[in-house]
Specification:
Length: about 400
């Protein structure tokens, strides 16, 4: 930077001024002095693009850094690519864009020799991207997992606390502003899956895309599953997990019960939390707000400061690791059965035939029928699925078995 450049404000082109974009513009104005003290240059917004304001080509021309806070993939993809190719560093909070078009965007950034930063795209203000890329940049990470969607964590926490059903709790989350008018991407796991694709790419240096993340949401969760689980000392979370397994990697989003000693078990309400595990670091957990205009804007501003300070993380994909789909897990199994002697023995036999052992059981009679709820020890998912299919065919089993993953590990 020459002295003439240093005396001028750094021009930020802002694409999108909604919840995050407006908060970012305010925060940038408020913290401009601090940014100048840290980087030597005072930032200012030089142009804004919304549906009704601004023209992209002019904004690009008149900016040194582009901040994309529009959301969606079209036209965000075109604009971010154009900015990178024009030599502008880009900051984005757009998880879908990175999860679906990461290869193309990182390649464009590398070719142009400019930074593409995206801390706010995963768990908003929790500095997990920076931590994985920079602090653990050369660490052999074994596993990244966590609660990366605040809407579903709020819904599951409320269902467990109040005993209310899914639909009623979703409506309450919408009233309180924790769920959007269209909550589909949150509750079906797609939002968490996009974040896990990004974290897997960073942690394993492998080009993981959204379509490779297996994903299950929370729409089917029943209040009685949460009530029984409480008796077994379990709490339910929608978890994202990216881990090394059998020479490849497994990247998944699924509802999962945790025992009380697990570091993610106490994370309640709209908070997020992410854990990183590696032999060299043991285990690190970070938690905080995973959304919110100001909180997300704060992460975006942190990225802008890093760019102005000239810190450059390396975006590299070094290996293409195969995706492993059949992994081991422990499970919660909920069965409605005839209340007759010998039923539990029949079920235990089927589980035994599939080499699955039972950790704990709760049984409740209700007239002619009984509920049988159990946790089974870790086994291959395919083996568990075969056992569940066989149990579902037993004459004394009255409805389709329900099951949910469990993490047995305690810390
Ligand atoms: N909200 C959060 O808490 C949060 C948390 C983490 C990450 N993020 C991410 O941050 C990004 C922005 O989210 P947000 O909640 O701020 O969204 P938002 O409130 O819907 O704002 C989007 C902004 O982008 C503009 N825009 C959208 N499509 C456009 C188009 N085709 N052409 C021109 N302008 C367009 C909108 O213009 P108009 O004003 O004219 O409609 C609006 O100003 C998303 O990628 C989101 O996933 C958000």
């Amino acid at each position: 930077m020459n002295s003439e450049e240093a005396s001028k404000p750094v021009r930020i082109g802002l694409l999108g001024r909604g919840t995050v974009g407006a908060a970012f513009a305010d925060l940038l104005a408020e913290r401009a002095g601090a940014v100048e003290a840290a980087t030597g240059r005072r930032p200012e917004v030089s142009g804004v693009l919304t549906r009704s304001e601004g023209e992209f080509a002019a904004i690009l021309e008149n900016s040194e850094v582009v901040v994309e806070l529009m959301g969606g993939t079209d036209p965000a993809r075109e604009h971010v690519l154009a900015a990178l190719r024009a030599g502008r560093p880009v900051v984005t909070a757009n998880k879908q864009l990175l999860a679906q078009h990461g290869d193309e965007l990182f390649a464009a950034a590398r070719e142009a020799g400019v930074q593409l930063r995206f801390e706010a795209a995963v768990a908003a203000v929790i500095p997990i991207v920076r931590t994985i890329q920079e602090s653990f940049g050369v660490t052999e990470i074994a596993k990244v997992f966590g609660i990366v969607n605040g809407t579903t964590n709020f819904i599951l926490s409320e269902m467990a606390a109040t005993g209310a059903g899914y639909e009623q709790t979703l409506a309450r989350a919408q009233q309180l502003g924790y769920a959007e008018a269209d909550p589909t991407e949150d509750v079906n796991g797609a939002d968490a899956a996009a974040k896990m694709a990004i974290l897997a790419r960073l942690a394993f240096h492998s080009p993981v895309t959204l379509s490779e993340v297996s994903c299950q949401g929370i729409e089917e969760i029943q209040p009685d599953d949460l009530a029984y689980a409480k008796e077994l000392g379990l709490s339910l979370k929608l978890l994202g997990a990216a881990e090394r397994r059998d020479g490849g990697i497994s990247v998944r989003v699924f509802p999962c019960f945790l025992y009380a000693g697990h570091p993610l078990a106490p994370i309640e309400g709209p908070f997020n939390a992410v854990m990183v595990e590696a032999p060299a670091i043991t285990e690190v957990t970070m938690s905080g707000p995973g959304a919110g205009g100001l909180q997300t804007a704060s992460a975006v501003l942190g990225d802008v400061v890093s760019i102005l300070a000239g810190e450059a993380p390396v975006h590299e994909t070094r290996v293409e690791l195969p995706i492993v789909s059949d992994v081991t897990s422990s499970f919660y199994l909920h069965l409605e059965v005839a209340d007759r002697p010998g039923v539990l023995a029949q079920i235990a036999t089927v589980l035994g035939d599939h080499e699955i052992s039972v950790k704990s059981v709760v049984q409740r009679g209700s007239g002619e029928e009984a509920r049988l709820v159990m946790v089974v020890h870790e086994c291959l998912e395919s083996r568990f699925a075969a056992a569940v299919e066989a149990i579902g065919k037993l004459g004394d089993v009255r409805s389709a078995p329900r099951f949910i993953h469990v993490i047995e590990e305690e810390f």
